[in-house]
Amino acid sequence: MAKKTRAGRTKAFKKISALKRAPAKKTGQSKPWTPAEVHEAFSRFRKENPDPKGELEHINPYTLLVAVALSAQATDVGVNKATRNLFPVADTPQKMVALGEERLREHIKTIGLYRNKAKNVIALSEQLIANHNGQVPRAREELEALPGVGRKTANVVLNIAFGEPTIAVDTHLFRVGNRTGLAPGKTPLEVELGLLEIVPDEFMRHAHHWLILHGRYTCVARRPLCERCIINDLCRWPEKIVYLT
Ligand code: SF4
Predict the structure, then answer these.
(1) Beta bridge partners of 131
(2) Whole-model pTM?
């Protein structure tokens, strides 16, 4: 399996002669990161990308909430394609309700689970009008009470729209937290709570974005690009590719 993986790597990777797979250890045995290592990792993320941004297009907290609700089991690129036509005509709960479920379905039919998502977006828009004066609430409990809004969606909205130091654990962040040993956990909530415990305050605002981007573009699921990873020396993954020089 390892041979097949290595053979499939890019030309650029093959040119790096001083790389070798680290000796395998049993998973679950990695040493916890020290506070100094955690600080070092996030310092590097910050240096590389001082002001990271989410990739879901939106124009206000409401459209962010809708975009995140639409993004479950879908790619940001796919959601952006649909919302580029939707948000110019429905950027408030009132306009969304006026648009109606059927026309909303037409706008988002390229996104997975679109029927259910359309139903939820209309229902959450109605609730925002009825209970929150048409505004997106800033409280987690109120966000999570909206149809189709779970903890992850609430965390994204609290972080991006309101600047709260929350960490939304999606599939990328879950993988990075476990694979690196930074915040291992069997559930997204365990990973989230682990990260909240160890990430220094100065990095909390952007930690969520840095880790998601790291998982999306470097520590990817099938063949992580360890050869260009800026936290390679800190990562605890037993199967990582390490520099020998
Ligand atoms: S060294 Fe490899 S496995 Fe570890 S964080 Fe970097 S890309 Fe992921």
Answers:
(1) none
(2) 0.83
